[in-house]
Every structure is written in C-alpha cells, then in structure tokens.
Predict the 3D structure of the following.
Amino acid sequence: MARNAVQFQRGLSEAEFDRLYGTEEQCRAMVISARWRDGFSCPVCGGRSHSEVKTRGLFQCTKCRRQTSPIAGTIFAATKLPLRTWFRAIYHLTQSKQGISSIELGRRLGVRQTTAWMLKHKLQQVMLERDARKRLTGRVEIDDAYLGGERSGGKRGRGAPGKTPFVAAVETTAEGKPVRLKLRRVAGFTGQAISRFALRSLDPSCAVVSDGLACFSHVSDAGCEHQAIRTGSGPASARNPTFKWVNTALGNIKSAIVGTYRAISSKHVPRYLAEFEYRFNRRYDLASMIPRLGWAAAQTPPMPYRLLKLAEVHG
C-alpha cells in the first residue's frame, strides 16, 4: 500500500529550523523583508531614504526624521520577547498535526504558560485573518458540528448547553480529492446563519452537497447549487462516502481538541478552528508554512493582550 505523501513528508527538522531561524538577526531580517518587500518605506511620509539607529533597532526616515520599529504595526508590536521565540512558536504551531497546548508550548519555549497562551493566540489570530476572505469553489461537502459536550443534567443533542456550533466545509476536486477546508463558528443551525456563512465563505460557483438538515438549503442565498442527501443518523451516516472528507476533517479536529486541549472557551473557538484550517490548507508543504506565517504575521495589525483575552472572536 502506497504511503500517504502528505502524512510522510519530511517537513522541517529542528536542526534545519535552527540553521534558518536560530538567531535574532535572522528572525529580524525575515520580519523586515516581509514588512517592506521593496525596501523601507516611511509610514508617515512614504520616504525611502533612511538611516538605522542600531542601538535601538530603529529605522529613521531621512525626510521627516520619523523613527520606526520593524515590528510596529505588526502582530509582534510591543513584544518584550525575542523574535526567535516567536519564530520557534511558529515552528511548533505549524509542524504539529494535532496542535500544541499552551502548557506544552511554554515548556518548549522556556516561558510561562500565560506567555505561551498569548503567543499562540496572537499567531492563531494571524491565521484567522489570513484566510478570512478566501472562498471555497467547485464541489463542496458541508456538515454541522459542535465543540463541547453535555453538561450534567442538561439537554442532550442539538442546542445542549455548553456546545459551540460550527460549520465544516471541504472543497474537493472533480475526482473527489480534498483541496481546502473552511471552519466557521455559527450562532446556530438556522437559515440565516447558514446564509451568512455561505455569503462570506462560498463562491457562487460552488456545488454544495449536504445532509438533510434544512438550514443548508440557504447556501442558495449565495448563488450556490445545492444537493441534499439524507444520511440518517448514527455511525453509519458518518461513513457515507459522499461526505468522506468533511467527516475525516471533523474526526481529526475533534480528536486533536480532546487529546491536546481537553476543552476550549466558546469565545476563542474561531481561533482554534482557524489553526486547524490553516494547517490543512497548506498541508502539502510543511516547511513553507514557517516563512508564510512569519510573512502574514508581519502584515497583521497588533492585537493587544487585553483584547485577545477578553474580546469575543467573530468567525
């Protein structure tokens, strides 16, 4: 039996990572090249002529004299951590299929759990914003899912307390191979919620296939073709070949969350889903995920810790 090329790809070894991103100078150069791909440009006047204040790591515009930090205006803004610690966090988030908890990340980075949590969630925010506007096309398998479980003495099934509903959608090729994944938290499985999801996440060219849940017919509000296939309930429905890839994705996600995180707060669910989505959509080249996420981080506006911790994330 042939090996799965994605599962057995080489990825980036720790030794190779250290060679490419092991020093502060290497990581700083990566951020500078990502932020100013065509060379320094003053954020105030647009001037390109500049000098470097080496004692403070700043660039000074020759025209307006404004001093600018390479990390200002990025997800790294105001950090007191070395950039090499950020890039090592990027390494662990992108190279581990099942994800990594903030406790384990803290151990590997040599920082407190709260610091590791902050790093992880800021990078998850980058992932969330990076893929937010990308829509699926072609044939799409779609299904409803929940994170969380029944509370003691509470209602069972859909609508049970403590459960966070989300939509999983997988774009496939004409031959049935998975291409890209979308995971979005929704307020509930209503026509309005699915219509909103479809308008944001599906191209009008999509041919959507779903189970018999009535709300999925509202993908047509986005101009999508829709086919409903009634699968019944129970384990047999999850083995229906029509929904092979969306069910596989959901199984992997739920296994990882149970095994790695145990439980996650409902308000942070979109970031965790974004992490799984980001890795899945770039699974064919593990090594390239590090510079790609580093580049995206340099293009993502700051996310203060107080907002990261308290604010509700909208998927």
Residues 150-154 have pLDDT under 50 and may be disordered. Residues 44 and 66 are 7 Å apart (CA to CA).
